Amino acid sequence: MKAYVFPGQGAQFSGMGLDLYNQSDIAKELFDSANSILGFKITEIMFNGSAEDLKQTKVTQPAIFLHSVILAKMLGDNFKPQMVAGHSLGEFSALVSTGVISFEDGLKLVSKRAIAMQKACDIQKSTMAAVLGLEDSIVEKVCESIDGVVVAANYNCPGQLVISGEINAINKACEKLKENGARRALVLPVGGAFHSPLMNPAKEELEKAINTTIFHKPSCPIYQNVTASAVMNENEIKTNLISQLTSPVRWTHTIQQMIEDGATEFIEVGPGKVLQGLVKKINRESEVSSATIF
After folding, report:
1. Residue 294 above 80 pLDDT?
2. Is 209 exposed, middle or buried (0-12, 13-18, 19+ CB in 10 A)?
3. Cα 126 from chain centroid?
4. Mean confidence (pLDDT) of the chain
5. Which H or E element spans position 280?
């Protein structure tokens, strides 16, 4: 059974999407439409910008979304998912690609999400850290023992969990995690504490936008970050999407559940190969590949 997975923030690279733009009238039309919807030439930054330019949250999230969604559209009849999932931001790409929300609404939501997250980061300085080589339960216990806000944010694969929270709390947690046997506990170069309670101001802002957007039933089950289980009901999808900003990304559990439900092949739709690497670490037997039109 084929499962399509959509990457999140961090998969961007300079020149992304230029090949799609040059190869297809559909892609060109959608990219030009995106420039108009966003009110700035995101194509200029995607195709010619530096890594630094692409790192701006208001650029990164729409850029990855556009690459994924346009690639899925260009696959045409070859895009026949039997199940889908997206990592954090990638969930929006998955929703557009399965007909839950329109391209225009998806892009508007992603743009609002990026700006709202940036605002939340400006309200309180915060960060994230990658923890390697420890069981999830140990990381969770250490987070609970620290004063201040620090929570498990991204369950990426066994032995790789990202924590999120206040800077002091993250630093204390990293020290304690190393004492508990973590191979590494490394503060990440990110703008804030994504998927933590510190994203509440962004969640409130995004909730208003999501509630005024029309959602349809997906063409196949979508495995959402919040529940790590198959969802087909549009109201449930909406509720989970609102919760996503302050809840952990349960990627390990998502992939395990998809495999349990019959997934044998995972195709990554979008820039990079990050998710293929994670799937292989979760289950070595799974086939992985990148979606390609060439």
Report:
1. no
2. middle
3. 19
4. 95
5. helix 274-282
pLDDT digits (tens, 9 = 90+) for 62-114: 999 999 999 999 999 899 999 999 999 999 999 999 999 999 999 999 999 99
- pLDDT category of residue 190 using cuts at 50, 70 and 90: confident
Distances in whole angstroms, Cα of residue 163 to Cα of each of 89, 149, 183, 247: 17, 10, 15, 12
Query: Between helices 25-38 and 103-123, what is the axis angle to 10°?
Result: 40
Question: How many helices and strands in the chain, by DSSP H and E?
Answer: 13, 10
- What domains can you pick out in the chain, each with its CATH number? 2-122+197-290 (3.40.366.10), 126-187 (3.30.70.250)
Neighbours of 265 (CB within 10 A): 14
Q: Which of 271, 268, 240, 197 is nearest to 100 (CA)?
A: 240
Residues with catalytic function? 88, 195
The label of the residue with tokens 């990627």 reads 251
Half-sphere exposure in the Cβ direction for 70 (13 Å, CA): 28
pLDDT in tens, 135-171: 999 999 999 999 999 999 999 999 999 999 999 999 9
Tokens of 207: 């909730």
d(CA 84, CA 267): 9
- Contact (Cβ atoms closer than 8 angstroms) between residue 205 and residue 118: no
What tens digit of pLDDT does each residue of 197-217 get? 999 999 999 999 999 999 999
d(CA 157, CA 281): 6
CA quadruple 68, 197, 132, 227: dihedral positive or negative? negative
Q: Which token pair is 241?
A: 């999407």
Locate tokens 């910008």: which residue?
49
